[in-house]
Amino acid sequence: MRHLSPRISSRTTRRRVVGSLAAALLCAAGLAAPAAARDTGSANGASGAGGASDTGERSAAARPSTAGAKLPDGLALTPPMGFNNWNSTHCRADFDEAMVKGIADIFVEKGLKEAGYQYVNLDDCWALPERDANGKLVPDPKRFPNGIKAVADYVHDKGLKLGIYTSAGTKTCSDIGFPGALGHEVSDARQFADWGVDYLKYDNCNNQGVDAKKRYIAMRDALKATGRPIVYSICEWGENKPWEWAADVGHLWRTTGDISDNWSSMLSIMKQNLPLAESAGPGRWNDPDMLEVGNGGMTDTEYRTHFSMWSIMAAPLLIGSDLRKATPETFEIIGNKEVIAVDQDPLGKQGKVLSSEGGRWVVAKEMKDGSRAVALFNETGTAQSIATSAKAVGLPDADGYTLRDLWKHKSYNTAGKISATVPAHGTVLLRVSADGAWAKNPPAVELGLGGAPLVEAGEPAKLTSKVTNLGRTSARKVSTTFAGPSDWQIRATSPSTANSLTTGKSLSTSWSVTAPQGTAPGAYDLTLRSTYRSPAGSRAESVLPLTARVVVAPPAGDSAVSDLPWMSTVNGWGPVEKDTSNGESGAGDGHPITIGGAVHAKGLGVHADSAVEYYTGASCEKFTAQVGVDDEKDSKGTVAFEIWTDGKKAASSGVVTNADAAQGLSADVSGAQVVRLVVTDGGDGTDSDHADWADPVLSC
Q: Are 364 and 386 in contact (CB under 8 A)?
């Protein structure tokens, strides 16, 4: 099962009903369907042939491609930027002419056009379900009473461009079943050009099993034949590795399935797209799908990570939220010109992963001016120190470097070390240059906290902060403060000031942090702050937002883990379930945990990639479980189970498939403050990776 948004839901039953009719119509259009379509859900499902064939037209898919149609052609020399309605509206009634015009207005009024956003794109559901008598597409008169050309004219009058959507199949991806372009490529491309369309997103649903290259080349040739410059977005979900063959076919190609508005989905897609850096360049971009920034399913910190990582990956930046309802924070994120400049750099390099150990990612991107964009990304649920160097990111030797923080919009100098303590799920995005002007900036410092701030109510927790001078120049009059909820007691138990810190030197301060007796378990905000002065006397500061967790130690004896409160969870599909399998995307929709036919009453049902954290407070000795892939996915699913203690891997199952019986997995957790139960995809993607921690027991 393809775990994507509702637009790619399975239509197997409808395919069986009309499959032979669709095949016949394809043959009539000059395009032979395979004898037996592969059963991969909606991708090959027929929902009808989409109306009469184009009068007098021979399908472009039946003709050989012409060399003159091959790309690149000078379009999309930087990743396309714009808007697409799907993530915020799907097929709901609020997707209409008024919305599209409203988005164009906002692009101008809010400075997004000036920032580089150009395309206002219509996704599925803009047409009627049937073609007209001449085989032409018909815009929905309720949604677009004045037609598509009128909308294009309005958008063009704003100095913007219009995009449209269809599918390389007999129907689009909507369950309603709007006409696809398979067998109608030339006619549909001509309509798009006549309407003034500037961008086509070409999906993959209901493709009848026809070879992907053949289908996508057919539309490329049809678009080129119109004579109108149209950016061509190939949306076949990465199933046929378009990064290996589509550089002369489309300007961008999807590398993954659809994104969803949650951390797990964004993270999974990012990880799939990052290894493909060598395939990207001017006019040929890896597309990890649209932005979810502002849709509400992630925190602002996570949305800044989303925007940062898409930018350093040189990904298309297509806003997926309804800007008519957007918050100031959303506009601040998507309108950050310094981050956009990383994405739009004309050299066209996609950032490359330098390291990712323990969820601490360093990604570097070469820029045309010789500088490097560097993302320090923290995948984990607690603040982490992440470091690299000017040499490691490819900069030449120099006495000092300018380090620009693209979210703080401030510049510092560094002697060569590039390091920051990054909040949970956060990203520090920097631009580092060997520009000779470094000395005019104050020194960079790293402010951090040793260990996770875990607090038992009424008991003082001992924490240690450290501020380290990374700069070539000294940091003077250094002072560190620590603040939290007004009723908490936080006090320094060692010096919190220093007269001067030279390069590489640190100020460490011990703190006593006490939450009042009776404080409810949960997350509480803390702020660590360090102020200092440069040699020239200018004031600078470093601020680290932190999350303290008030925790409760597990009881003595053996406890079923599913009966204990967890600290945090991350799950690849829907929520983590207690004492049932993962099920699907809804909470409580799992089934009895079943591995190899054996049913287990207790456990956790998860989906890769997954992590569940428990506080053990150094009071437990052992964790045990029976692990395996749940039977609810039949023969599908390949995963690996891992047990981590305080950030170190303590045990691993190796790769486990659905064919395997449950296997025992245990780890010594003596002395650990936190035990983390991790499930990865086993190295082959996350499709159907429903995993069970069956009979999990923590002995304390």
A: no
DSSP string, 312-376: HTT--EEE-S-GGG--HHHHHHHT-HHHHHHHT-TT-PPPEEEE-GGGEEEEEEE-TTS-EEEEE
- How far is CA 359 from each of CA 215, 272, 314, 425, 488, rounded to the nearest angstrom? 39, 15, 21, 10, 31
* CA–CA dist 137, 122 (Å, integer): 15
The yes-or-no answer on residue 345 being catalytic is no
Tell whether omega for the bond before 72 is within 30 degrees of 0, i.e. cis. yes
pLDDT over 50 (residue 171)? yes
Helices marked H in 522-625:
none
579: left (phi over 0), alpha (psi -120 to 50) or beta: left
Q: Are 218 and 191 in contact (CB under 8 A)?
A: no
b/e burial code for range 122-131 (CB count within 10 A of at least 16 → b) = bbbbbbbbeb
pLDDT at 6 over 80: no
**C-alpha distances in Å from residue 121, one per residue of 97, 118, 161, 238, 288:** 12, 10, 8, 21, 17
Contacts of 345 (CB under 8 A, 6+ apart): 78, 314, 365, 367, 368, 373
- φ/ψ of 221, rounded to 5, equals -65, -40
* Residues ≥6 apart with Cβ < 8 Å to 207: 43, 44, 167, 168, 169, 182, 215
Query: Which of the residue ranges 479-483, 509-513, 572-576 would you say has the lowest mean pLDDT?
Result: 572-576
**Buried (b) or exposed (e) across 425-463, using 16+ Cβ within 10 A?**
bbbbbbbbbbeeebeebbbbbbbbbeebbbbbeeebbeb
Q: Concatenated DSSP letters for 409-423? A: TEEEEESSEEEEEE-
The answer to whether the CB of 658 falls within 8 A of the CB of 631 is: yes
Which pair of tokens denotes residue 357?
A: 């150990």
Instruction: Check whether 5 has a pLDDT greater than 50.
Output: no
Q: Cα–Cα distance between 341 and 333 in angstroms, integer?
A: 13
Q: Supply the pLDDT for residue 463.
A: 96
> Would you say 458 and 441 are in contact if contact means Cβ atoms under 8 Å apart?
no
Q: pLDDT tens digits, residue range 518-548? A: 999 999 999 999 999 999 999 999 999 999 9
User: What is the Cα–Cα distance from 492 to 507, expressed in whole angstroms?
Assistant: 13
- Both tokens of 421, joined, read 């303590």
171 DSSP assignment: B
Taking a C-beta distance cutoff of 8 angstroms, is the pair 378, 309 a contact? Answer: no
Single out the catalytic residue among 258, 345, 630, 695: 258
Element (H, E) at 304: helix 300-312
**Strand, coil or helix: 268:** helix
Residue 48 has which token pair? 């009808």
567 and 551 in contact (C-beta within 8 Å)? yes
Long-range contacts of 13-20 (CB under 8 A, 24+ apart): 14/45, 14/46, 14/47, 14/177, 15/44, 15/45, 15/46, 15/47, 18/46, 18/47, 18/48, 19/46
On whether the CB atoms of residues 551 and 454 are closer than 8 A, the answer is yes
Check pLDDT > 80 for residue 451.
Answer: no
Q: Are 16 and 269 in contact (CB under 8 A)?
A: no
3-state DSSP call for residue 9? coil
Cα separation of 50 and 182, whole Å?
Answer: 9
Choosing from 198, 203, 221, 695, the catalytic residue is: 203
CB of 373 closer than 8 Å to CB of 312: yes
- 547 neighbors 525 (Cβ within 8 angstroms): yes
Is 258 known to be catalytic? Answer: yes
* Sign of the alpha-carbon dihedral angle for 38, 39, 41, 47: positive
